[in-house]
Design goal:
579 residues; binds 1-deoxynojirimycin; binds calcium ion; 8-stranded parallel sheet; 6-stranded antiparallel sheet
């Protein structure tokens, strides 16, 4: 057969990327409101996270990203901050945060906090001052404009539906809000605003956090004169990449980030892969990572985010390859298949009925073997699915509620609205974490702030902890595999069959190692032939019992089967056999 021992695998042609702790890390994202409640008010809290440190440690993750924990009236569940230096009343007190940070640190887990610098709450003292008068010292912290011909100053629309401007009676001017009315946009062209945010960043970094996830980074610089968006434009594109954006990010890096051993990951709304390198190329000294939405928006109509469209596996795979090429060796990617803003990964990219368990494991395998830092969203390790919302009132999400109000005003079809939101709403990701099969899933002793997913009796952490074949057990194995094989961090990535309609097969090479990942995205058995010259060797991870004997180049993959192999090193033609 001419198979060489694995240690003889030689495949590095490119220089290895620079080492960094955050490249080697697995990030776990917690939505604190839905993680664990300890005082019976139905809302998750910091002491709840503290009570689950054993669970977090058992996952093997290195970093916890906490969605915003700051004082907030919660119009958008913490993405509307009224005090950047204090903890949200519902979540606890600063002492609880300090204890949580220390508890995590003792287990080797760093904390990423969620910085929301593009907008504050309208209840933030800056805005309260700002709206008083046209002359006050805080007026220029936000975007105020007089009416244009008796209407909004431009045609911008909020990403949560409706106009992006609100008329304020105090001064007869409009203020800008790219999100909800209660989230006025901060004016980053004002150096005082930038300094305020840098101070906030330092305040928390000085406490010892590991870094920041930064909300809607591409919107920080607005185009001068706030010109209209072209008709039908993608709003994210229209607001992203203003002319001073990279100056501001370099300033932020110089003033804050470079002074700490901190990581910064930006939410890359409105970016294409061509825009990516400008944010993360190491030489530019801006951010360390950004995450994009190219694969997370594939199933939506570009003109209407609540309307689904079909997409193919080759389209999905192409996104990973395109971003991998774009970021190359100088930048670094982030790998995610969902977060608190999207429905559950298994309901979108897997099969949430017959093959839920298999496909949840397959998607976890993808997350943990793709090139880039993996971000795992809470509950995805259990294979949580989308929920069922029986009426519009059962939704909490402000974007669902504003879209509904708009729909009602236009006299639209409410039943159709409900049907669409049952596929697309952000609340699918926000249902409380199912700890066990009791009435409130062990999440709370009170009434949960958002309806539990009715399937929590079947899908919950306790049941999976006791089951070596559970998605949770597979997730932990995949995390361990990533730890054992540095090639999964620093190795190159190559899609071996970009056009295959059902199988995602890729290699990871480098670090003296070469692995093959094969993922069957179909609910039927699929045969897959490896490209010429490649053959499988040892099976390192799978989500089914090991396959029976089969040729090392021709695989028969069961529905949603995922396998990770060490690649055999075949002798190049003409080479002499080694002993
Ligand atoms: C992105 C956040 O992830 C989302 O939850 C929030 O609604 C918007 N930014 C506005 O802050
Ligand atoms: Ca609580």
């Amino acid at each position: 057969m001419g198979l060489l021992p694995p240690q003889a695998v030689a495949s590095e042609s490119k220089p290895a990327p620079r080492r960094a702790w955050w490249k080697e890390a697995v990030v776990y994202q917690v939505y604190p409101r839905s993680f664990k409640d300890t005082n019976g008010d139905g809302i998750g809290d910091l002491r709840g996270i503290l009570s689950k440190l054993d669970y977090l440690e058992s996952l093997g993750v290195d970093v916890l990203w906490l969605c915003p924990i700051f004082k907030s009236p919660n119009a958008d569940n913490g993405y509307d901050i009224s005090d950047y230096r204090d903890v949200m009343t519902e979540f606890g007190r600063m002492e609880d945060f300090d204890e949580l940070l220390a508890g995590l640190e003792a287990r080797g887990i760093r904390v990423l906090l969620d910085l929301v610098p593009n907008h504050s709450s309208d209840e933030h003292p800056w805005f309260v001052e700002s709206r008083q008068s046209k002359q006050g010292p805080y007026r220029d912290y936000y975007f105020w404009r007089p009416p244009r011909e008796g209407r909004e100053p431009n045609n911008w629309r909020s990403l949560f539906a409706g106009p992006a401007w609100e008329l304020d009676p105090a001064t007869g001017e409009y203020y800008l809000h790219l999100f909800a009315k209660k989230q006025p946009d901060l004016n980053w062209d004002n150096p005082r605003v930038r300094r305020e945010i840098y101070d906030v960043m330092r305040f928390w970094l000085d406490k010892g956090i590991g870094g920041w996830r930064i909300d809607v980074v591409p919107f920080l610089s607005k185009r001068p004169g706030l010109p209209d968006c072209p008709p039908g434009a993608d709003l994210g594109r229209c607001y992203a990449n203003g002319p001073r954006l990279h100056d501001y990010l370099q300033e932020m890096n110089r003033e804050v980030l470079s002074r700490y051993d901190a990581v910064a990951v930006g939410e890359g709304i409105g970016l294409t892969s061509e825009d990516g390198p400008a944010f993360v190329d190491e030489g530019r000294r801006e951010l360390d990572m950004i995450y994009h939405f190219d694969h997370l928006t594939l199933d939506r109509e570009p003109s209407d985010f609540s309307t689904m469209r079909p997409f193919s596996l080759p389209e999905f795979k192409a996104v990973f390859s395109r971003w991998d090429r774009a970021l190359g060796e100088a930048g670094w990617g982030s790998v995610l298949l969902g977060n608190h803003d999207f429905p559950r990964m298994v309901s979108r990219f897997g099969n949430d009925s017959r093959f839920r368990v298999e496909s949840a494991k397959l998607l976890a395998t993808l997350l943990l073997t793709m090139r880039g830092t993996p971000y795992v969203y809470q509950g995805d390790e259990l294979g949580m699915t989308n929920s069922v919302f029986e009426s519009v009132e059962e939704f909490d999400d402000i974007s669902t509620r504003t879209a509904y109000a708009e729909r009602l005003a236009r006299g639209g079809d409410v039943a159709e609205f409900l049907r669409k939101q049952n596929r697309t709403s952000r609340d699918h990701a926000r249902t409380p974490f199912p700890w066990d099969d009791s009435e409130n899933a062990g999440f709370t002793t009170g009434r949960p702030w958002l309806k539990l997913n009715p399937n929590h009796r079947e899908i919950n952490a306790r049941a999976q902890q006791a089951d070596p074949d559970s998605p949770l057990a597979h997730f932990r194995r995949a995390v361990r595999l990533r730890r054992q094989h540095r090639v999964l961090v620093y190795g190159s990535y190559e899609d071996l069959a970009p056009q295959h309609p059902a199988v995602f097969a890729y290699s990871r090479r480098g670090e003296g190692d070469a692995l093959l990942v094969t993922l069957n995205f179909a609910s039927v058995v699929t045969r897959f032939e490896l490209p010429a010259g490649l053959a499988t060797a040892e099976l390192l991870l799978g989500n089914y019992p090991p396959p029976g004997p089969e040729p090392p180049e021709r695989l028969r993959l069961r529905p949603y089967e995922a396998r990770v192999y060490r690649l055999a090193n075949r002798r190049p033609p003409g080479a002499r056999p080694t002993r």
